[in-house]
Amino acid sequence: DQQVKQNSPSLSVQEGRISILNCDYTNSMFDYFLWYKKYPAEGPTFLISISSIKDKNEDGRFTVFLNKSAKHLSLHIVPSQPGDSAVYFCAATYSGAGSYQLTFGKGTKLSVIP
Amino acid sequence: NAGVTQTPKFRVLKTGQSMTLLCAQDMNHEYMYWYRQDPGMGLRLIHYSVGEGTTAKGEVPDGYNVSRLKKQNFLLGLESAAPSQTSVYFCASSYLQESRNQPQHFGDGTRLSIL
Fold this sequence. Notes:
The structure holds two protein chains of two kinds. Chain A is mainly beta. Chain A is built from no helices and eleven strands. In chain A, strands 2, 4, 5, 9, 10 and 11 form a six-stranded mixed beta sheet that branches. In chain A, strands 1-3-8-7-6 form a five-stranded antiparallel beta sheet, with no helix packed on it. Chain B has no helices and eleven strands. In chain B, the strands form two sheets. In chain B, strands 2, 4, 5, 6, 9, 10 and 11 form a seven-stranded mixed beta sheet that branches.
């Protein structure tokens, strides 16, 4: 049973517009969420995170929104740039995980068109 | 600063052969992890370590063994490789959980093909 779901395998956006990547989770124990970005032939790199005590976290062009009641989070990129083209993974964890284990979604491939 | 380094980057094995993947980190992280990523799938945790000399099973541990003899190194072993183990393997490391805002840092992966 997939606990973290990214239902859109791919997304295409024009340069300068907003990119919205979505993530749903089923495990109500999750209390910390992260987004990772991955370029081909490289490892994932941390992008932004949010704790369940917040509903929004912002870092430059990247904003993550958390809706706990809907078990849904989203990553907004404004404005989108061609260098943002990558695969984005949503990940989640909870305090009881003990070792900070992450559960990942399958990823969404973002293509930003110049 | 190298961060997390994985060796080798590519490898082709025959079914039944054994090999060891090496992960080294220079950030003095306590926690280390091994993941595999398959096409259309997210990263799945194989094994992890919360400190030198300790290891534990993750989501998909079967067919793999690990060792953490030194804090900076985490080895992943395949004793008898199977085609189902064809994958891209990622190593990661992080600080103790008390530093919850410290994310996992990943290496660039090892692409392993089992024929």
